[in-house]
Amino acid sequence: MNSTTAAADRLLTVAEAAQRLGTWDTGGERFPRRLIAQRRIRFVRVGRLVRIPESAIAEYIQSQTVQPITVTRRMQSVA
Question: According to a count of CB atoms within 10 Å of the terminal CB, is the N or C end of the chain lower?
């Protein structure tokens, strides 16, 4: 990421991050706060406030995405 992208990156509140992660309805701010406490996601301190860059949410989702395995089966002849 270059400095231009970083400067333009919107900083989200923990509640907004929870909404983007899809955890707001079930756990509120608990999940993103746990990610922050465990240092599993990038975050920014602005005084006492904690903010999460939008790009950090995208990076976290990308890192947690599991790609499907494609299996090719060979046709076996029945003898």
Answer: C
